[in-house]
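Journal club prep, notes for RB
We'll compare a predicted complex against what the paper describes. Inputs for the heme C case:
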Amino acid sequence: MKNVFAVAVGVTLVFFMAVGVSQAGKTSVEYGKQLFSDKGLAGSTNDKSCSSCHAQGKGLEKSGKNPKLVAAINQCVTDQLGGEKIDGRSAEIRSLKMYIETLTGPAK
Ligand code: HEC
């Protein structure tokens, strides 16, 4: 009977580890694109998303090369969306960054 219990605990642990890994794997261009037009991003309450001002990445054509990209994103999050600063290591910010980097065309 003890073994059955141990197996059940083991299976549960593996399940939660798998969920954790799949959440971490959420960092992607697709996820960034989705967040870019999310009006509730970072607790934003003013009914705006990044897309409201940067439709199709307008104005961000060179931002993929901006060394202060994370700070620039967070500045818009707080000042333009009225949201809370996003953790610099989170999947959200890394995905937004990845998406914005795809908007950067060839070097001019
Ligand atoms: C209410 C309008 C508005 C919203 C909403 C907004 N922005 Fe901005 N954003 C601006 C303006 C205005 C600037 C400054 C443009 C300039 O002069 O460079 C800017 C600048 C930026 C820059 C810096 C551009 C550079 O020089 O590289 C980034 C990156 C950026 N925004 C990303 C975002 C992201 C990501 C979101 C969503 C979290 C967002 N913005 C939401 C208006 C907005």
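Talking point for the session: The chain has a mean pLDDT of 88.
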